[in-house]
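Blackboard transcription, Thursday session:
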Amino acid sequence: MKKLYKLTAKELSKLLKEKKIKAVDIVNSIFERINEVEDKIGSFVYLDKENALEQAKKVDEKIEKGIELKPLEGIPVAIKDNMVSNGEPTTASSKILSNYKGIYDATVVKLIKDEGMILIGKTNMDEFAMGSTTKTSFIKESKNPWDLERVPGGSSGGSATAVAAQEVILTLGSDTGGSIRQPAAFCGVVGLKPTYGRVSRYGLIAFGSSLDQIGPFGKTVEDVAMFMNVIAKHDEMDTTSLNIETPDYTKNLNEDIKGLKIGIPKEYFIDGMDNEVKKAIENAIEEYKKMGAEIVEISLLHTEYAPSTYYIIAPAEASSNLARFDGIRYGYRTENYKDIKDLYIKTRSEGFGDEVKRRIMIGTYVLSAGYYDAYYKQAQKVRRLIKNDFDKAFKNVDVILTPATPNTAFKLTDKKSPVEMYLEDVFTISANLAGIPGIVIPTGKNKNGLPIGMQLLGKHFDETTLLKVANNFEKRAYRIELPDNI
Amino acid sequence: MAREWEAVIGLEVHCQLKTGTKVWCGCSTDYDNAKPNTHVCPICLGHPGVLPKLNEKVLDYAIKAGLALNCDINKESKFDRKNYFYPDTPKNYQITQFDKPYAENGYLDIKLNSGREKRIGITRIHIEEDAGKSIHTTNESFVNFNRASMPLIEIVSEPDIRTPEEAYEYLNTLKTAIKYTGISDVSMELGSLRCDANVSVREKGTEKFGTRTETKNLNSFKAVAKAIEYEIGRQIELIENGGVVEQETLLWDEANGVTRVMRSKEEANDYRYFPEPDLVKVIIDNDRLERLKAEMPESKIDKVKRFIKEYDLKEKDAEILSNEIELADYFEQVAKYSNNSKSSSNWIITEVLRVLKEENKEITDFSIRAEHLAKIIKLIDNGTISSKIAKKVFEMKLTDSRDPEEIVKVEGLTQVSDSSEIEKIVDEVIANNPKMVEDYKQADEGRKPRVLKGLMGQVMKITKGKANPKLVTELFEKKL
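(Written on the board underneath:)
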């Protein structure tokens, strides 16, 4: 039998139910793997093996008593460091929260615990989810398991590498402008950003509240679908969480996609896009044709405005969301200060990293009295146009297929300006502005052996179709083999 | 000729809603005697990751305030963030309503001492959250977050107010109207009502507004009137001496009776308002509005009208009885049980209100139950006791919980209506007061009752007030 850490959640769950393995075996297996590769990868900022084993024992007791397990019961999971868990460090990988422990459970944490999944720790991220490399983390650098000299992407880099390096079976990330999908593409794993309002944000440390969404990473589409069944629930604690029933996302996965219409937006094939990425996407289109899907060329007219719109709205909300980190009630506080203003300035100057400060300043500027109309208000109008583009497109097609990123993973040492960095999310940002779901799955590798990701975008709350279309590709066209020797 | 000035005054009133729980979380709002930071949770402390959720009761109460102040209730409104750093503001922004408040275009009719009535426009009412409280000692500062996220409504008047008296009456009328709905204690002493005054002056007859100042820290209605009066005087004097009024935020210094500068326009915050992304739009549907309309108690104006019509009261009396909804309820109960509304009104206005004032009590704490006061009135009406004895019973009732009938019976206060017994006494008085008797006989019709009163007094003295005055009068008239 393969080593347990190499298996999918689905496979492990089957083995557990058949009493062929124990939950404790799974936990031991993944911690062995973590011991083996974590020093090189740097996926985690916090791990608790003891607690994980304790949870696993409880699951094993249940199995022994013959109590039926829930679908993901006993499966190890890690969450991004911006999701609050009671009594555990939750730092958003920032110095300003370096001493902070959660005093309640985020709704997703509650759901994971209710399912009986085994929370093993927290994953590294860009500070307050701001970045596309995971390099802005105050705590550590994460590395791409396919090439340790390369970035894993960001901001949910740790959640992507943990799955790609097979250190854990499932993880949660958060996606404000592509923070699940871009690292999924760079690391060759499946990452889903659900519809805004599908997964509760309660307990997610806010970056851009109107854009943030929690979503799963997994090795396969099916694993991600199973995980969605756990976390996609209406939550009264989050008024933006929609009160609609959760479908069983695993039910329609294997239905064929004959006659299904896939839109290809011409605006997504831009100059400066990597040729191999382009070719991989063209291949994918051909594969879908073979499966009987109808390919329709569409236009998303306002795509080019998405990054500038995003880099006004997200920092505006962030500047306000991050105001609470002031050293008064919790978190890091500067050592010496003379008055309250000095306390604020020093605490925040010392506590926040450069990228966070840059965005707070942009946000403060675009919301200020003299500039609100020129920037924030204007951005909201463009956001509406981008949304309308999608609404129009989805009248004719079932899903939209695009590249996930313009390039494959770049080197850690590559010097990119902030603006160049902001363009990393050019293909993913629109989905956040429009609130629609998007999934990224591996679609091939380039000549350097780096994964290439494809993105599928769907209608509001139609994750079912997305997962089905993605699963068809994974089952019939391509499934990546995750790196073993790291 | 000296220039004539006119003040333009607008008031911003913050009113704390007694919803029992805070505006975004389930924390209790009854923190008055609680230890600091005991009525808090991750949400009202602004911990990382938390989200607000609008307390539906807050919305209901706010809508009731809007209805009481004759506002249009907007079917759709939204929340916004007002960003500023302050240690007792947990999130360092306040959730409030900026450009789309839930209620607008209302009014309140006030009555001035001269009897003149005036309508004061209400620009808007919006929902917002309160901040915590900072406590400073010589070298340390503390923050108590018990008050953080208490639900508030802010009621903004049109600049229709012209005099301190109008401001004072506006606040009184506003307080009564809000108190009637039961949504707030509206007490400046308890901090559930706070008021800021915007004041400017302009030459009479001109349209354009002058530069206004905003005065904060007003802790009584009288202070509001005094501060406005001071500010009007200061601004006029300043302009007449060639100065210019600056747009400033002022604090009212009660001890010295002056306003002081808190911050100038240059120091004013840029609040960077923007729509609150964590809260969905506020939708108020017809069903909700209709339900709340149905739940609204009768307004004071309607009550006064009804009291005049239904109970045949004088307007002034109806006004007094309607000042507080509990007092009005008390009156209606007494009137119902006694079946004598006039007498009920008189007893409450002269006796009950006097006692409440003396004892500094609310009607809800008054010791005589409505049924018992009604019984006292009935005992007079059916001739069991005289009104003089009734007063005695009333005084006893303040500390005696027994039924008035029982008191009258046990204490032997029943009026003597046995004519043979009274006749004996009348004869005795006639025999012992020949001068008065002669006087009565000589008196013309106009003076007769006065002399009779003296004779009556003698009878009452002997009977300790228990003789039936009507019977006594009849006997005197017959015998003399």
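Lecturer's comment: Residues 95 and 351 of chain A are 5 Å apart (CA to CA).
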